[in-house]
């Protein structure tokens, strides 16, 4: 939690004001941030200086694992986070590739599970990683990439957390996740939970022990309309100790994640937090 607050403070103290064309807003911005989460010790990196809707964050990631391309499927799992990007962004609404209400196009999990091959057919990147890690194999290329520039025009948003690399040392599993663009008040609150939970889940379904998760962020920003709440409210609060994440031990395979898992299979214990803060969201 301290590292999150340190990054927020660093943006407030050292950030540069950068115009963003896509949203029409200015962002206070720094470049390069490295965060680490101790999954081995179950130090769940949930923000405590405001109430965090962690179930929505996990739901979003399960949707990526399932390869969802529709905001309605995300809502059914328990998160509305894709409603705005699927239905309120003018450029996407005018895009001929948009298949209708709630369509997100070829983003995130679509690339992760069905990356189109130029010679026909698809690559299921996640399946290959799970199969290898289950056999104790790390071929130094256990990489899940959502970043497909050849299909950016077919999706509502380029992926922000775009690459996840798994590494095995003996039977301890590590994850390094890369993020090109980070809305620190809103997005990072979710992304921290997602990186942690992804490693915990992958270790569980491949029969390995979770180690550390490393989260590397390039452009970390606070939108102009979020700054006051961050600087004058959230940063004035003292954090509480990290809570713990409990995952249903019956989740044993990728198929389990694809079929019956719901947000009821995740529990957080010891979550002490300050009052909610509603940050503005930029589409
Ligand atoms: N500007 C922007 N920031 C993001 O973080 C972001 C995007 N766009 N577009 C794609 C996804 C969608 N994500 C989102 C979208 C909404 C919330 C949000 O509104 N969170 C609120 C309430 C969540 C709830 O009630 O479930 C929060 O207080 O965290 C968070 C992440 C993360 N990503
Ligand atoms: O998982 C996510 C997804 C998105 N974001 C944020 C980062 C930016 O503020 C926007 C995306 O805008 P771009 O113009 O495509 O960079 O969404 C996030 O923090 N985490």
CATH architecture: 2-Layer Sandwich
Strand content: 25-35%
CATH superfamily: Thymidylate synthase/dCMP hydroxymethylase domain
Mean pLDDT: 98
Q: Which CATH top level class fits?
A: Alpha Beta
Secondary-structure element series: HEEHHHHHEEHEEEHEHEHE
Task: Count every beta strand, where a strand is a DSSP E run of 2 or more residues.
Answer: 10
Strand line-up across the major sheet:
1-2-8-7-6-5
Q: How many helices does DSSP assign?
A: 10
Whole-number tally of structural domains: 1
Structural class: alpha+beta
Ligands in the model, by name, code or SMILES, are:
5,10-methenyl-6,7,8-trihydrofolic acid, the ligand O=c1ccn([C@H]2C[C@H](O)[C@@H](COP(=O)(O)O)O2)c(=O)[nH]1
| Rg for CA atoms | 18 Å
Distance between the termini: 27 Å
Walk me through what this model shows:
(6R)-5,10-methylene-5,6,7,8-tetrahydrofolate binds at residues 183, 282. GO terms for molecular function: thymidylate synthase activity. InterPro entries: Thymidate_synth/dCMP_Mease, Thymidate_synth/dCMP_Mease_dom, Thymidate_synth/dCMP_Mease_sf, Thymidylate_synthase, Thymidylate_synthase_AS. It is found in: Cytoplasm. There is one protein chain. The protein has a six-stranded mixed β-sheet. Strands 3-4 form a two-stranded antiparallel sheet. A two-stranded antiparallel ribbon has the order 9-10. The protein has ten helices and ten strands. 31% of the residues lie in helices and 25% in strands. It has a single domain (1-269), classed as Thymidylate synthase/dCMP hydroxymethylase domain (Thymidylate Synthase, Chain A, 2-Layer Sandwich), CATH 3.30.572.10. The two termini are 27 Å apart. With 283 residues, it is α+β, with helices and mostly antiparallel strands. The site of the ligand O=c1ccn([C@H]2C[C@H](O)[C@@H](COP(=O)(O)O)O2)c(=O)[nH]1 has 11 residues, from strand 7 and helix 8.
């Amino acid at each position: 939690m301290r590292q999150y607050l340190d990054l927020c403070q660093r943006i407030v103290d050292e950030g540069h004001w950068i115009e963003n064309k896509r949203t029409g807003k200015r962002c206070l911005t720094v470049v390069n941030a490295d965060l680490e989460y101790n999954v081995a010790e179950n130090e769940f990196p949930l923000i405590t200086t405001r109430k965090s809707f962690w179930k929505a964050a996990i739901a979003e990631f399960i949707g990526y694992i399932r390869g969802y391309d529709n905001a309605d499927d995300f809502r059914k799992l328990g998160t509305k986070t894709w409603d705005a990007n699927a239905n309120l962004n003018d450029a996407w609404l005018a895009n001929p590739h948009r298949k209708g209400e709630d369509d997100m196009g070829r983003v995130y999990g679509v690339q992760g599970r069905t990356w189109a091959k130029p010679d026909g057919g698809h690559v299921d990147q996640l399946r290959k990683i799970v199969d290898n890690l289950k056999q104790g194999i790390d071929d130094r290329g256990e990489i899940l990439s959502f970043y497909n520039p050849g299909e950016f025009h077919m999706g509502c948003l380029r992926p922000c957390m775009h690459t996840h690399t798994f590494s095995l040392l003996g039977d301890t599993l590590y994850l390094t996740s890369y993020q090109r663009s980070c809305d620190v008040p809103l997005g990072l609150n979710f992304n921290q939970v997602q990186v942690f939970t992804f490693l915990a889940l992958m270790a569980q379904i491949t029969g390995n022990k979770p180690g550390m998760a490393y989260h590397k962020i390039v452009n970390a920003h606070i939108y102009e309309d979020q700054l006051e709440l961050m600087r004058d409210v959230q940063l004035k609060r003292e954090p509480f100790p990290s809570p713990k994440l409990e995952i249903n031990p019956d989740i044993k395979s990728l198929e389990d994640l694809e079929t019956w898992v719901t947000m009821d299979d995740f529990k957080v214990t010891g979550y002490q937090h300050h009052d909610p803060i509603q940050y503005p969201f930029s589409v």
